[in-house]
Design goal:
Shape of chain B: globular
Structural class of chain B: alpha/beta
Radius of gyration of chain A: 32 Å
Largest sheet of chain B: 6 strands, mixed
Order of helices and strands of chain A: HHEHEHEEHHHHHHHHHHH
Number of helices of chain B: 10
Strand content of chain A: 5-15%
Shape of chain A: elongated
Number of strands of chain A: 4
Helix content of chain A: 55-70%
Helix content of chain B: 25-40%
Number of helices of chain A: 15
Radius of gyration of chain B: 23 Å
Oligomer: heterodimer
Strand content of chain B: 25-35%
Strand order of the largest sheet of chain B: 6-7-8-3-9-10
Distance between the termini of chain A: 20 Å
Largest interface: A-B, 26 and 32 residues
Order of helices and strands of chain B: EEEHEEHEHHHEHEHEEHEEEHEH
Distance between the termini of chain B: 35 Å
Chain lengths: ~400, ~300
């Protein structure tokens, strides 16, 4: 009977919350963002790190003059630049300057001009990387020219200018910054930080609404407090999972339609850990927030009682952020991984950063599941004492004292 | 007649406040009992104790001849003093939901909700949110919620509070129907005239203790006072009977509060000497007087 009642309470939570305007609007907005983000990326393609550069060629620097500078630059800088070359060999110095500062009467616009000397003419500052590339090309061009003057064959010149290939060797695993892993870690952290909080507060509101409207007295005439709490956790949890599924489904669908779904390496461990952590986190925080709601009788008092729960959330978020972009192995990150209230935030981050072993993952998840069971049991006991109390806020000491009081008659 | 509910020597203390101090309540099967007492007397606490919403320090609660338990409580319908409904649920949905919580299957709960929506006159508001209803209509829904699972014991805490006359009439009809079908009803109310019209059985409590219990007519007859009302022909004379006092006077009529052992014949003869009498009414005090008589003994 009790399980059926839990399902009834859960169903009510889902149905009533899901039809509120705020829930629908937020879900629609999240879905819109999830679908729009990949579409926007596709419609607004990135340059893949390649900059477009316009180079003016002064007299003696154009192909017509027998120089191979453009070909050399294209060859040397193709990974980094998309070059456009503008012939300024017949331009006056004033016309060259106008082209550099973008005020040319002919509409010419260049980033730099290679003048005889050779000299590089810039607007008001040197682009070191581009300058170094042009200088290297000019040196290379000089070597080729002198080789030709000395009567060397193309092969001989080629042998001289071919750069020595240098390879890298690492004594330890290279400490590279993996941008994808960090983004994945941040995604997990944000999810584990925001979702339990949002739905936890929904649980708090729900409990306070039941207390302030007096409906809790009618409810408890039929079902036990623990049934009510369990149904609430289940219902709001299901609502959260549905919202996440809608948003993630929308994003994956958009990516599949755009054929852009390229998952990094092996994301399944991350997805599995994030899912379990998120479920554990939601169960923990929904329970805690529901319990906090039972300590007060007015929504206005909610801010006061939420502070203790906000502290582990903030600690987990701050340490998680540093772990996502750097110190995934710091002592703080390691410790908070095994504290159940911060596990949901730290564990996915460290898994994404590949900074945790399988055994540690199992232990952290085990502790999380165990703590959820203990927390729900404890909350049920406290809930029985606090739920029918009205008026001023019930202090934690008083609430725990209630654990010793007999329940019912 | 067999007892549906028997509460014996109930005690409950909240820190410094003694809420129940040996309260007794007996409710026969298929009867209505008015559960009366001043504010803070312990009526709501007693009802909550019966429902298991508050623990008791001592005493005994029995239902249908045995200790009350979860199963027996499932057959109690309850309407709390501070009404409790989900404001953002629809009328029919809410009644059905509470039916399912009381153990009904979905189809039965929906059917009963349909019936109760009609019965309390809210057919045209079936799919309205509770927050869109007037207070009176919300009370009708509350009544339906307490009855949807067909309880055998109904606990109504101040059911008439805040109701307009039409809603009071509906409430009274429903309560009478329930009693006629064998349901036992316990209700608290400060509207003693209504109580007297509704039931012969009352239990009066004060300070957490049962002060009087029984049939209204017995309580009235056991009173040490009687009420003599004389309607005079013409202006009422200034007359004070030897065995009582004039309590109220209106144009042409005076009410006297006299001792129960007074000879009414002698009293009326004495009155006839001071004025011409049009009519006389001599009876025990009403329930409101009895209530004040009993509760007045309570120093709290």
């Amino acid at each position: 009977m009790s399980n059926r009642m839990i399902v009834e309470v859960a169903k009510r939570e889902v149905v009533v919350r899901a039809r509120t305007k705020s829930f629908r609007i937020i879900t629609a907005l999240l879905l819109l963002v999830a679908v729009a983000a990949p579409v926007a990326v596709r419609l607004w393609p990135s340059n893949d790190g390649i900059d477009e550069v316009s180079i003016g060629l002064g007299s003696g620097m154009t192909t017509d003059d027998g120089a191979d500078l453009p070909a050399m630059l294209v060859s040397m800088g193709q990974q980094r630049y998309d070059f456009t070359f503008v012939d300024l060999s017949d331009a006056s110095p004033a016309e060259v300057d106008a082209a550099i500062i973008g005020e040319s009467a002919e509409g010419l616009n260049v980033d730099v001009v290679v003048e005889p000397g050779p000299t590089l003419a810039w607007k008001d500052r040197v682009d070191d990387e581009l300058g170094f590339l042009i200088a290297s090309a000019l040196r290379q061009q000089g070597v080729l020219d002198r080789g030709a003057e000395l009567g060397l064959t193309d092969e001989q010149i080629g042998a001289i200018v071919t750069p020595t290939t240098v390879t890298d060797r690492f004594v330890e695993e290279p400490d590279e910054f993996d941008e994808t892993a960090s983004l994945l870690a941040m995604l997990g952290l944000m999810t584990a930080f925001i979702i339990p909080q949002v739905f936890g507060q929904l649980a708090l509101q729900s409990v306070v609404e039941e207390k302030s409207s007096g409906v809790v007295e009618v409810l408890l005439g039929q079902i036990r407090p623990r049934t009510l709490l369990a149904g609430k956790i289940l219902g709001i949890g299901v609502l959260a999972v549905c919202q996440i599924a809608i948003v993630v489904g929308g994003m994956v669908g958009a990516l599949l339609l755009l054929s852009d779904l390229e998952l990094p390496g092996s994301p399944w461990m991350f997805v599995a850990v994030l899912s379990i952590s998120l479920l554990g986190g939601m169960a923990s925080y929904i329970t805690l927030y529901a319990l906090l709601g039972s300590l007060i009788s007015r929504q206005e008092d909610a801010a006061q009682v939420m502070v203790p729960v906000f502290l582990p959330l903030m600690a987990g978020y701050i340490v998680g952020q540093t772990a996502a972009f750097g110190a995934a192995d710091s002592l703080a990150a390691k410790v908070l991984t095994f504290i159940p209230l911060t596990t949901p935030m730290l564990l996915p981050v460290r898994v994404a950063r590949n900074a945790i072993s399988g055994v540690e993952i199992a232990v952290a998840l085990g502790l999380l599941v165990l703590s959820v069971a203990v927390l729900v049991r404890l909350a049920e006991r406290l809930y029985e004492f606090t739920l029918l109390r009205k008026g001023t806020r019930i202090g934690w000491v008083e609430a725990f004292r209630g654990l010793r009081a007999p329940s019912g008659s | 007649m067999a007892l549906r509910l028997e509460v014996v020597d109930l005690h409950k203390r909240y820190d410094e406040v003694l809420a129940l101090d040996g309260l007794d309540l007996r409710v026969p099967e298929g009867e209505m009992v008015g559960f009366l007492g001043p504010n803070g007397a312990g009526k709501s606490t007693a009802m909550r104790a019966i429902l298991g919403l508050v623990s008791i320090d001592a005493g005994r609660i029995e239902c249908n001849g045995g200790p009350i338990g979860e199963e027996a409580r499932r057959h109690i319908g309850y309407m709390p003093q501070e009404r409790g409904l989900y404001q953002r649920m629809m009328v029919h949905e809410q009644i059905s939901y509470f039916g399912r919580l009381a153990g009904l299957d979905g189809a039965t709960a929906n059917r009963r909700a349909d019936e109760w929506v009609d019965r309390v006159g809210l057919s045209d508001r079936r799919d309205d949110l509770i927050q869109e209803l007037s207070v009176g209509n919300q009370q009708r829904v509350q009544l339906a919620v307490s009855l949807v699972h067909e309880p055998n014991l109904l606990l109504l805490d101040e059911p008439f509070a805040g109701l307009d006359p039409v809603a009071v009439s509906t409430m009274i009809d429903v309560m009478k129907e329930q009693v006629a079908s064998g349901v036992s009803v316990v209700f608290s109310s400060h509207q003693l005239d209504l109580v007297q019209d509704l039931t012969e059985n009352v239990t009066i409590i004060a300070g957490g203790t049962t002060r009087a219990s029984g049939r209204v007519s017995e309580l009235r007859n056991n009173s040490p006072r009687r009420i003599l009302e004389i309607e005079w022909v013409g202006e009422a004379p200034t007359w004070q009977p030897a065995a009582g006092v004039a309590t109220t006077s209106r144009s042409g009529a005076t009410t006297y509060d006299v001792a129960a052992d007074t000879d009414p014949g002698a009293l009326i003869a004495e009155a006839a000497q001071v004025g011409q009498i049009a009519s006389v009414r001599y009876e025990p005090p009403g329930l409101d007087d009895i209530f004040l008589e009993i509760v007045g003994q309570d120093p709290s």
